[in-house]
Amino acid sequence: MPDEPVRRPDPVRWVWYAFGGGLPVRYRGWVLHDLTCRTWPARHLVRALVQVAPVAAILLLVVPGSLVIRSAAVAAGLLLGLFYSFAYMHEIVEHRASKAGYPVGTARAVQDAAHARQRRAQAERYAQIWRR
Predict the structure, then answer these.
(1) Considering just the CA atoms, what is the radius of gyration of the chain in Å?
(2) What backbone phi and psi angles, to 5 degrees, belong to 68?
(3) Residue 5 belongs to a domain
(4) Which helix (H) or strand (E) holds 18?
(5) Could you say which DSSP state residue 43 is in?
(6) Which residues contact 89 (CB under 8 A, 6 or more apart)?
(7) Is the dihedral angle over the CA atoms 15, 21, 23, 24 positive or is it negative?
(8) Per the domain annotation, does 4 fall within a domain?
């Protein structure tokens, strides 16, 4: 990971970032950390939930009908939205990294480097078991 300071944005800037907005250059190191740390899939999930929460709340409060039906419809919409968000998770991460000024592929390279030792050990175990 490049040696840049990891400076966390304030809550208002984080919400802006969660909705896809860009952050000032001083937060660039934090953006890469956010996209490549051990918990990056959970962070991606939180950002996706923050994006759909206002729409879900409006639909629950404004659409007429039974609360059970509205809740089921909103839950189904949330599941579908999260499915697509996770299906394109790597592309979304690379796009966010490029918005922070990193070349495309940087986030994936940092993630791969963090797990290189674990992958080598898995490959060796696989070779020992299946390539006799």
Answers:
(1) 19
(2) -65, -45
(3) no
(4) helix 11-18
(5) H
(6) 41, 44
(7) negative
(8) no
Q: What are phi and psi of 81, to 5 degrees?
A: -60, -45
Residue 45 in domain:
yes
How far apart CA 87 and CA 48 sit, in angstroms, is 12
Asked whether residue 3 is assigned to any structural domain, the reply reads no
If 0-12 CB within 10 Å is exposed, 13-18 middle and 19+ buried, where does residue 100 land?
buried
Cβ–Cβ under 8 Å, residues 27 and 97: no
pTM beyond 0.85, yes or no: no
Q: Is the pLDDT of residue 132 over 70?
A: no
How many domains does the chain divide into? 1
Q: What is the pLDDT of residues 43-97, one digit of tens each?
A: 999 999 999 999 999 999 999 999 999 999 999 999 999 999 999 999 999 999 9
